[in-house]
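Appendix C: a fully annotated inverse folding record. The material below is reproduced so that readers can follow the format used throughout the book. The structure is listed first as tokens, followed by the designed sequence.
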């Protein structure tokens, strides 16, 4: 047995595991497969000595390293040094990463002479675009591709963080209980938000609007508006653009285009597409927060009863069981959308009720509870095993308590 065979763990996960996740999360199977591949590719980049110093950023960084955004991204973005922008050396490096991936999980990464291309950004600076095919669990006859964007023309304002790569699948190499594959150098949460706001000002794409609103809501940003504003100003100065205001975003010539493309660009990346209008109007809150006139509210958790433990769910999407609707409830809460739950209690009213979802708890007896506020503004806890169906409503809500999703 050779060294590679000695290192080999299990083969690539089964297409049934992908299908189970896709059905539970209400996503296309190919979207889930790509999420699996992105996680392992990140682990390979973190492992290789030529790439482990890269700074991970962008929407995939938010989701893979910080918190569950529920938007399944399709590419990996990195800030690198100019010496890293060498097409030939990148090809050699990713050939080695491909070998490592095959040894670790059986994933087939396809690297060839056309995998990397040098481009120029709007400032005439060199960038690299990579497109890497892969042979994943679904075994598609035409290999899908993941995209890499590498740039050295970027200012990093705050110290980089080292974060775990969250991975809900069954083949995590270090500790399946920990739910991550590796640890990567990445942008801090304020830096990610500052860069997303700048991107929104420059390009006004649906994914940037979604990420700005979703990230702004995160409780880890309470009291950090000034920090984000400083980061935003530095990044805009580097890009030679004015620091955006609510008025400049509102007056963008891309307003109609971003609304038209909202469904086309995000519909396949989310379990349920929130209203464009809700996200567009919440820019008011973002810019009022940035200028200090509207701080993020410090909401309290829904107080558990004596029978409830202090357990909290994983930060990332996971599998609860086949047929479960828990992740759909978590998605709705994170996006401030009400849900209609068809509930069948042991005693009391059976049937649908529309509620605001806030959190999950386990009782000391091991029962999973969904903590909600009903239409009479009453706190209720619903046993997950008594929930028969869940549907996400288009109606949004303003949180009364801390949303823990």
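Designed amino acids, in order:
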């Amino acid at each position: 047995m050779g060294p590679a065979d000695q290192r080999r763990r299990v083969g690539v996960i089964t297409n049934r595991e992908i299908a189970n996740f896709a059905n539970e999360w209400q996503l296309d199977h190919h979207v889930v497969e790509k999420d699996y591949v992105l996680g392992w590719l990140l682990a390979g980049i973190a492992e290789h000595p030529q790439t482990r110093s890269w700074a991970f950023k962008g929407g995939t960084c938010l989701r893979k390293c910080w918190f569950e955004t529920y938007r399944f991204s399709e590419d990996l973005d990195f800030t690198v040094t100019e010496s890293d922008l060498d097409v030939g050396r990148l090809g050699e490096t990713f050939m080695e990463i491909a070998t490592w991936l095959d040894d670790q999980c059986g994933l087939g990464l396809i690297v060839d002479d056309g995998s990397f291309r040098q481009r120029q950004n709007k400032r005439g600076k060199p960038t690299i675009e990579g497109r890497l095919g892969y042979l994943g669990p679904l075994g598609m006859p035409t290999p899908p591709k993941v995209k890499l964007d590498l740039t050295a023309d970027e200012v990093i304002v705050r110290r980089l963080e080292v974060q775990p790569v969250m991975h809900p699948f069954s083949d995590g190499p270090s500790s399946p209980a920990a739910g991550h594959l590796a640890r990567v150098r990445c942008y801090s949460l304020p830096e990610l938000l500052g860069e997303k706001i700048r991107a929104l000002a420059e390009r006004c794409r649906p994914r940037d609007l979604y990420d700005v609103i979703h990230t702004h809501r995160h409780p880890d940003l309470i009291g950090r508006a000034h920090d984000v504003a400083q980061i935003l100003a530095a990044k805009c100065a580097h890009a030679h653009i004015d620091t955006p205001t609510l008025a400049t975003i509102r007056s963008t010539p891309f307003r109609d285009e971003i609304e038209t493309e909202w469904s086309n660009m995000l519909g396949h990346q989310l379990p349920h597409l929130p209203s464009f209008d809700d996200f567009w109007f919440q820019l008011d809150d973002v810019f009022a927060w940035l200028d200090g006139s509207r701080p993020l509210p410090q909401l309290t958790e829904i107080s558990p009863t004596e029978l409830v433990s202090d357990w909290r769910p994983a930060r990332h999407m996971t599998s609860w069981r086949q047929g479960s609707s828990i992740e759909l409830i978590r998605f709705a809460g994170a996006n401030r959308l009400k849900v209609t739950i068809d509930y069948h209690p042991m005693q009391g009213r059976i049937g649908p009720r529309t509620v605001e979802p806030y959190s999950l708890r386990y009782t000391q007896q091991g029962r999973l509870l969904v903590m909600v506020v009903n239409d009479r503004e009453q706190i209720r806890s619903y046993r997950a095993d008594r929930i028969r169906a869940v549907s996400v409503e288009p109606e949004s809500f303003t949180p009364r308590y801390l949303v823990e999703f």
